[in-house]
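Structure in, sequence out. Go:
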């Protein structure tokens, strides 16, 4: 891929890295990669999926186990069994506090409330809607 960009723009590394205003438009590593692809004829394939931050459950599987253990007693399915979500009465804030008090997690080892809510959603739990009282504040 980088080789195509290099061949279209030309091989001069000085011209490739800056546009007319002198602003860098390509990273030097991308330019070097493209030149090497042209030289060898081998196209390098990037592994973009391996980059980035892993999900919290992947980094700490015990957290997922503890969240399920706390959410399951407070959950119920829809009487019509239409949605795949289980409805839970516990909020993300309540789940975080329960992890600290009942499962002996430390405050610094837990993700924020929003992340815990996201984890609950990924696990198939539907969180309660905010009440009118909390919307007014």
């Amino acid at each position: 891929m980088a080789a195509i960009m290099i061949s279209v723009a030309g091989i001069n590394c000085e011209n490739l890295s800056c546009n007319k205003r002198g602003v860098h438009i390509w990273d030097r590593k991308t330019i070097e990669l493209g030149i090497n692809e042209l030289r060898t004829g081998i196209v390098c394939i990037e592994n973009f999926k391996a980059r980035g931050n892993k999900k919290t459950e992947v980094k700490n599987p015990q957290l997922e186990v503890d969240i399920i253990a706390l959410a399951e007693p407070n959950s119920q399915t829809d009487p019509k069994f239409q949605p795949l979500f289980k409805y839970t009465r516990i909020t993300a804030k309540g789940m975080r506090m329960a992890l600290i008090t009942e499962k002996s997690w430390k405050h610094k080892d837990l993700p924020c409330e929003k992340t815990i809510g996201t984890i609950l959603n990924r696990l198939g739990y539907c969180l309660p809607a905010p009440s009118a009282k909390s919307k007014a504040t």
